[in-house]
Amino acid sequence: MDADDGREDRFAVRVAAGAGTSDAVVVLALRGELDHDTVGPLGGALDDHPRARRVVVDCSGLTFCDSTGLNELLRARLRLRETGGRLDLAGLRPPVERMFEITGAVRVFRVYGDLTEALADEAGPRDGEEVHG
What pTM, to 2 d.p., does this model score? Predict the structure, then answer.
């Protein structure tokens, strides 16, 4: 059995349709379990959009996220901040949201109830403000 067997079934990242053509706003839709074994595609998708001014990560299909996944999102957030961009989260489901609450990460990211709400907020709150839908 190859080391990659089953990983694609457990986790997927796709650039959501309608995210814009300028690459200024990129929507990454996550599905499945984000952990040490599956984090590679997320890192690759984030690296594929270096000119993005805003990345919205749609977590509505994310069923699990461990510390490796959280750290990848935190690193991407810092990289975007260095260039004046931002990374926002949308649609956290209860098990994933609980992990973000326990670690305090929910206070670091802008978190929206769903993707529609996140995309409607073009300006967004100032850093440090929480957004929960």
Answer: 0.84
In the chain, what is the straight-line distance between the N-terminal and C-terminal CA atoms, in Å?
43
Give CA–CA dist 28/34, Å, rounded: 13
Could you give the CA distance from residue 43 to residue 123 in angstroms, rounded to a whole number?
A: 26
Q: Torsion-angle region of residue 108: left (phi > 0), alpha (psi -120 to 50) or beta?
A: alpha
Tokens of 9: 């079934």
Of the pLDDT bands very low, low, confident and very high (cuts 50, 70, 90), residue 9 is: confident
CA distances to 5, 21, 25, 130 from 11, rounded to whole Å, are 12, 25, 22, 27
